[in-house]
Design a protein that fits this description.
The chain is of the alpha+beta class and 491 residues long. Helix content is 53%, strand content 17%. It is elongated, with a radius of gyration of 34 Å.
Length: 491
């Protein structure tokens, strides 16, 4: 360590009070910046977790596929998390109170599908054997038919056939009778099977059972898709989520998809992962973060800059002696920046820890209110928890460091311009005349002697006065901005 750096550290130790106050300012700045970056990261992670719990952990789905498509997708580079579902047929639901949903739809899921799709048990267990099913609460809440764990269901399963002879699926709504002589669709029964109800789950996701779907879903296990006939729905993820659009375009070409509805993206999940072509969510989220961080940095620069300005003023004679001993302007400027880095080395880590503790406590105390913002009406409840990703901490540390360096820049530049004699004699500290600090009789009568002295002090230190006003202004703007953001978010 060179002589100038040792002198700088000695000055920090000698002025412990000012050093501690500056470090506290850095801690507050770093804490607020960390709170914002961590809150944004926690909000994004929460929305991802909520979407996975509500819609499923998949990036895209292929409907109406055969075994060749299944094998091709398994061997395709960039595809991971492949989950398979298969329709085992429809059966009439006796006693259904919903004229638009007269069927039970048996949907077979392989092990990966049970993990990827949002199948959340309310009671019982998942089906394991071919003659076991998991019923959904929607059958009772919407159809008015209640099943209990242990019930036996004997179903005459078949396929829905439309007037044109085409096989209908869950994406085709129920077609009512057109006349007394004929119907718009028929149920072609092909087998009779008996199932045992082993559990009850939440309502299926819209990709499995849309609002217009004619059948209530029963989940059954699919042990080996390769040994099954019929058509599959293939849910999958991209190894790198950002490549999902390239991957799906490749699938369209290779599998010659003619119906665009057969391939669908999980748009909500991709949006919250930050890889969607729709950038509106990122624009709003990161735009708000940028505004808050900008306000915090401006207020912090004003506060910390005052501290470095005071330090430079107190060290002017020291700088003059160093300059007289041969120190260059660059070395003097480096001394101020070294002081900033030394203070930042202590204040930034402590500020990050304080910010994490503060935002963690805030999220814990307001968890119910934050969770209710998106969980209202959801099929499953997901708690809002603190997420601490490394990029958020790195961004907070970098922004705090930039804030400190900007705060030290003006005092450092002013230090480099001082001549040795002016610094030693301190002739530039006060350049005021009696006229410049003169006050009026009205001010003395209104504010008294104390107010008159305060007004004179403000006139003597116009820069600090302006800095104080700017700091108060930023504080009010931050308070109003945070209040408005909370109000709009709640509404």
């Amino acid at each position: 360590m060179n002589v100038i750096n040792r002198v700088t550290l000695a000055g920090l130790k000698q002025n412990r009070t000012r050093t501690i106050v500056t470090i506290i300012g850095v801690i507050l700045s770093a804490a607020m910046i960390t709170a914002v970056t961590t809150l944004i990261a926690s909000l994004q992670a929460y929305l991802v977790d909520f979407t996975i719990a509500d819609q499923g952990n998949w990036h895209a789905v292929l409907h109406n596929r055969d075994i060749d498509d299944l094998n091709a997708l398994r061997e395709m580079d960039g595809v991971t998390g492949l989950a398979v579902t298969r329709s085992a047929g429809y059966a009439l639901l006796p006693g259904s109170q919903n004229d638009f949903k007269p069927y039970l739809h048996v949907l077979q899921l392989d092990q990966a599908a049970f993990a990827s799709l949002p199948v959340h048990l309310l009671s019982g267990r998942l089906p394991e054997q071919a003659d076991e099913v998991l019923v959904t609460e929607h059958i009772y809440t919407n159809g008015g038919v209640r099943y209990q764990v242990g019930d036996k269901l004997t179903l005459q399963l078949g396929q829905r056939i439309g007037l044109n002879g085409m096989t209908l699926d869950q994406r085709d709504g129920f077609a009512f009778r057109l006349t007394e002589q004929g119907g718009a669709e028929q149920l072609d029964t092909r087998e009779t099977r008996t199932f045992t109800v082993v559990g009850i789950s939440n309502r299926p996701t819209s990709e499995v059972e849309s609002h217009a779907a004619p059948g209530y879903t029963l989940y059954a296990p699919l042990h080996d898709p390769a040994d099954s006939s019929g058509e599959f729905s293939l849910f999958f993820k991209a190894t790198h989520p950002a490549r999902i659009y390239t991957l799906t375009n490749q699938i369209r070409v290779e599998r010659q998809l003619s119906d665009s509805g057969d391939l669908k993206l999980n748009s909500e999940l991709l949006r919250f992962l930050g890889v969607s072509n729709d950038k509106s969510f990122q624009a709003v989220l990161y735009g708000l973060a940028a505004i808050l961080l900008g306000l915090i940095m401006v207020g912090s620069v004003t506060l910390i800059h005052n501290s470095f300005s005071i330090s430079v003023s107190e060290r002017k004679k020291q700088f003059g002696l160093l300059s007289g001993a041969g120190a260059t302007a660059k070395q003097l400027r480096h001394s101020v920046f070294f002081e900033a880095l030394a203070i930042g080395g202590i204040g930034i880590p402590l500020g990050i820890l304080a910010g994490l503790a503060g935002i963690g406590t805030t999220i814990y105390l307001l968890q119910d209110a934050l969770t209710s913002l998106t969980n209202m009406g959801a099929r499953v409840q997901v708690p809002f928890a603190l997420t601490v990703p490394l990029p958020a901490i790195a961004a907070a540390a970098a922004l705090a460091l930039v804030t400190i360096l900007i705060s030290a820049y003006i005092p450092a530049r002013r230090t480099a311009k001082m001549s040795a004699m002016d610094a030693i004699r301190q002739t530039t500290d006060i350049k005021l005349t009696a006229k410049q600090v003169k006050t009026t009789r009205v001010a003395r009568r209104v504010f008294g002697l104390e107010g008159d002295l305060a007004l004179k002090n403000l006139k003597r230190n116009r820069r600090r006065y302006r800095s104080t006003v700017v700091s108060l202004f930023i504080s009010v703007v931050l308070f109003v901005s945070a209040s408005a953001f909370s109000t709009y978010l709640r509404d």
